[in-house]
Amino acid sequence: MAFFTRQLCRHFSSSAVRNVVIKNVTIIGGGQMGAGIAQVAATTGHSVTLVDTSDDILKTAVKGIEGSLKRVVKKKFADKPEAGEEFIQKVLRNVSTSTDSGSAAQRSDLVLEAIVENLKIKQDIFHQLDKVAPEHTIFASNTSSLPITDIASTTSRLDRFGGLHFFNPVPMMKLVEVVATSATSKETFDSLLNFSKVLGKTPVSCKDSPGFIVNRLLVPYLVEAVRLHERGHGSKEDVDIAMKLGAGHPMGPFELADYVGLDTIKFIIDGWSAKDPSNPLFAPIEMLNKLVAEGKLGKKTGEGFYKYKRLIK
Ligand SMILES: CCCCCCCCCCCCCC(=O)CC(=O)SCCNC(=O)CCNC(=O)[C@H](O)C(C)(C)COP(=O)(O)OP(=O)(O)OC[C@H]1O[C@@H](n2cnc3c(N)ncnc32)[C@H](O)[C@@H]1OP(=O)(O)O
Ligand SMILES: NC(=O)C1=CN([C@@H]2O[C@H](COP(=O)(O)OP(=O)(O)OC[C@H]3O[C@@H](n4cnc5c(N)ncnc54)[C@H](O)[C@@H]3O)[C@@H](O)[C@H]2O)C=CC1
To answer: What CATH superfamily classification does 215-301 receive?
Structure first.
C-alpha cells in the first residue's frame, strides 16, 4: 500500500500535490532540537526516523528522549508509575534511528532538518534528499537564522519547502514559527501549520525574513546583554538575576545563551555578520569567540558562561 501511494504521488505534478497529512517523519540531526522534535512527534503518534552521522550520537539522542519522557511521565502519571513506563515504551517504539538519510527520506511525508547552522551543509543534504524523496514529501528546516529560500535553493521542490522553527526545550516550549517563502504553496504551508497543531504546539505564520519573529527580537537583546557586561556595567550573575526578577524571564540572557549552545550562537552571529558586516550588532563578541574556541559550548558540554554539574541531553 505504501509502495502504491508512493508511485501515485510520483505521478502528481508538483502543483497538483494536495495537502499532505504528515504521518511518517524523518528528522535529520539528533542534537538538542532534533531529539526534542522527535520526542514530541513520536508522542503524538507519528512514525519518526531520527538521522545523524553516527550510531553513538543516535544512542545518546534516544537516551536523551527517554530522560525527557521520564520527566514528562513523572507529572502525567504521578500515581501510576507502571502506566508511565508503558507510555514511555510506546513512544519509543515510534522512534527508529538511522545514519542513512536517503533511505529514511524515501518513506517520509516530511523531512525536517535540525543539523548545524551552516548553509552549505544544509543545502547539500536537501540536494541529495530531493533526488530520492517521494514527490509528495515536504521538506522543512528548523534553522534559527538562515533564509529558508537559500536552503531550499538546491532542490527542485520550492513549492514543498518551508520553515518549521521550534523552540528549546521542544517538549516544553509551545511555539512553532511556520515559515513560508515566496514559493511555498498554500497546501504545503497548511500541512505544516496543521502538523504543528497536531504536535500540540501553537503555530504562528512568518515570512522568510531574518530571524523570523522571535529571533529578530531576541538576538539584539542577547547581544546587548553581553556588551553591557563587557563594558563592565553588570556581572553575568546580576544581569541574569535582573532579567529574571525584573522582566519575568524564566532564564537570564547568559543562562539562555548557554542553554541554546554557544556554537549555534556563534554560527548565527558569524553568518549575519558576513551578510551585513557594517552592522554593529554583529561585531565580534570576544567572550563568545573565546568560549567556543575552548570547546565551552554551554550546558551541553558542561561549561559555557557558567559551569554545570549535570550535562543536559
Ligand atoms: C549572551 C550571549 C550573546 C549572544 C548573542 C547572540 C544571540 C543569538 C541567539 C539566537 C538563539 C537561537 C535559538 C532559537 O532559534 C530559538 C530558541 O529556542 S530561543 C530559546 C527559547 N527557550 C527559552 O526561552 C527557555 C526559557 N526557559 C524556560 O522556559 C525554563 O527555564 C525551562 C522550561 C527550560 C526549565 O524550567 P525551570 O523551571 O527553569 O527548570 P525545571 O528543571 O524545574 O523545569 C520546569 C519543568 O519543566 C520540565 N522540563 C524542563 N525541561 C524539560 C525537558 N527537556 N523535557 C521534559 N520536561 C522538561 C521539568 O521536568 C519541570 O517539570 P515540573 O513538573 O515542573 O517539575
Ligand atoms: N539550540 C537551540 O536552542 C535552537 C536551535 N535551532 C536550530 O536547530 C538546528 C540544530 O540545533 P541544535 O539541535 O541546537 O544543534 P546540536 O549541535 O545540538 O545538534 C546538531 C546535530 O546535527 C548533527 N549533524 C551535523 N551534520 C549532520 C549531517 N550532515 N547529517 C546528519 N546529522 C548531522 C550533529 O551530529 C548533531 O547531533 C540549528 O539549525 C539551530 O540553529 C532552532 C531553535 C533553537
So the answer is: N-(1-d-carboxylethyl)-l-norvaline Dehydrogenase; domain 2 (1.10.1040.10)
ipTM exceeding 0.90, yes/no = yes
Q: What are the tens digits of pLDDT across the range 73-107?
A: 999 999 999 999 999 999 999 999 999 999 999 99
Residue-wise pLDDT for 119-162, tens only, equals: 999 999 999 999 999 999 999 999 999 999 999 999 999 999 99
- Asked whether 66 and 43 are in contact (CB, 8 A), the reply is no
Q: Is 142 annotated as a binding residue?
A: no
167 CA to centre of ligand 1 in angstroms: 9
Q: Is CATH 2.60.40.1520 the right assignment for the domain spanning 24-207?
A: no
Query: Which regions in the chain score pLDDT beneath 70?
Result: 1-18, 310-313
Q: What is the mean pLDDT of the chain?
A: 93
Please report the DSSP string for 149-200 in residue order. HHHHTTSS-GGGEEEEEE-SSTTT--EEEEEE-SS--HHHHHHHHHHHHHTT
CA distance 234 to 257: 17
pLDDT at 132: 98
Nearest alpha-carbon partner for 114 in 148, 150, 165, 156? 165
52 is in an annotated binding site: yes
Cα–Cα distance measured from residue 74 to residue 85, given in angstroms and rounded to the nearest whole number: 10
Residue ranges covered by each domain of the chain: 24-207, 215-301
Whether 118 is a known active-site residue: answer no
Asked if residues 72 and 98 have their Cβ atoms less than 8 Å apart, the reply is no
Q: Which atom of ligand 2 is nearest to the CA of 260?
A: 3
